[in-house]
Automatic annotation (TrEMBL):
It comes from Crocodylus porosus. This is Klotho beta. PANTHER family: BETA-KLOTHO, GLYCOSYL HYDROLASE. It comes from the Eukaryota. GO terms for biological process: carbohydrate metabolic process. The lineage of its organism: Eukaryota, Metazoa, Chordata, Craniata, Vertebrata.
Amino acid sequence: MFLYDTFPKEFLWGVGTGAFQVEGSWRKDGKGPSIWDHFIHSEFTDAASTAGSSDSYAFLDKDLSALDFLGVTFYQFSISWPRLFPTGMVETPNEKGLQYYSSLINALVHKNIKPIVTLYHWDLPLTLQEKYGGWKNESLIEIFSDYATFCFQTFGDRVKHWITIHNPYLVAWHGYGTGMHAPGEKGKIAAVYSVGHNLIKAHAKVWHNYNRHFRPYQQGVVSIVLGSHWIEPNRSQDVLDINNCQQSMERVLGWFAKPIHGDGDYPEEMKNKLHSFLPSFTEAEKNYVKGTADFFAFSFGPNNFKPPTTLAKMGQNLSLNLRGVLNWIKLEYTNPRILIAENGWFTDSHVKTEDTTAIYMMKNFINKVLQAIKYDSINVFGYTAWSLLDGFEWQHAYNTRRGLFYVDFDSEQKERIPKSSALYYKQIIQDNGFFLKESPQGLQTHLPHLLHPTAHQPNICGGVRDGEQLNTEGGGGWQVAKC
């Protein structure tokens, strides 16, 4: 089922990046090292190639031109904490870093593009890891709040949308469980949930700080990006299968969503099964944590948790049905206002500008959002295509590309070349949705890979071939597609 219709008139269209992924210049102009700088230089064999990335720090004007090309209404980007404060402690800010972010924000405001600013997208100042043990230490809650306060004071006159932390699930699970992300600690289950606990309390403290001291005159909003998979039962009428799916969602999305968007506490299933590892909230902390998000910022796509293949035997099937998970959020958390804060697909590193699978996935994802709005009365107010540029894709380094714009990382000028997906997204933004402009026969002639993916990629199921491994990040490794 495909819906030809338009989004609400005030719907927001945007695109996003993470600072560590695109800025480059990791030792330039006084920037301090982050845990990711340390991680890749100790774990990656080709660490030298990560120094440049897309070089957004050096080529800000090219990023702005790419945003102009797309015609977006907002740009979601993150501030590199160690570029502002090299040691992580809020002392005298690094002047060059401060100038860079001020220039970026001023340019966006001048172009009438809303800046949505993420305070923490995984690049923790290395000093805070070495001195305090990173997010395992409760001291970081206060230190993070000081950093956020500086950003509110400095940029809050122009920034009205703030994200505290990007996808805390991956910070905790991959940073301290699988070791796939910085700081690369493995198998420490108690640390995983301790980190998650501290991230929730850090977010809540920043939200209350903004609410009390900045919102009255800055009139902005604050949230946290939560990421998830979506699971559907093998047998839709089987209670056990359904319960397994519900538990899977609670272990991933509910871990952070229920405390913040729900009643201030963890899901009962987690408390029962993980009581020896999972920290507890006091009654005062529950009241402090709940309600600390002005909208539900949601990430969905290949960056998120993918359950181990054994879960399929428990009656669970991984699904890319974005409409399904939006309905789950609506039911679990009393129909919140939702921003799709990260969504997109990937292409292999050798693919340059003809990223047809990414277009197919984009069309599917965005249409599911439209269906959720029109058919299910779900209050989605904006969509973030991920990502603006090709960049450093975490443990996949440069072996995977997620940008709407192609970047030759070996070139000096790092030109941003629009891919087919950029052209397609630009058209969706202009139309504010999907118009049936031609006869079906005409569309088949011009866009066979969109309407009929089987024309060039046989047996595509969620963007992969039957029997092919899903190339996604997650706590459980790889899974073979079953079409």
